[in-house]
Design brief:
Layout: H1 3-14, H2 22-28, H3 33-44, H4 48-66
Length: about 70
């Protein structure tokens, strides 16, 4: 996996409560937002927005299963 995409995945996964500006994230990787989206989808298989939604749903499911 591309090191930039790996870093983006780490940042997006770090704290789901914090909204991350994808434009700023792309800038920090020295890429345009559209290029980063393209690379992300090619490497991960889904768009960054879908990835964050998937992480949030997994987290919610885990919380529902483990707590009252």
């Amino acid at each position: 996996m591309d090191f930039r995409i790996r870093r983006v995945v780490e940042i997006l996964s770090a704290d789901l409560r914090v909204e991350v500006s994808f434009k700023d994230l792309a800038k920090s990787m020295n890429l345009s937002a559209s290029r980063l989206r393209h690379l992300f989808k090619a490497e991960v298989g889904i768009s960054p927005k879908q990835y964050v939604r998937k992480l949030k749903l997994q987290n919610a499911r885990s919380l529902l299963e483990q707590t009252n």
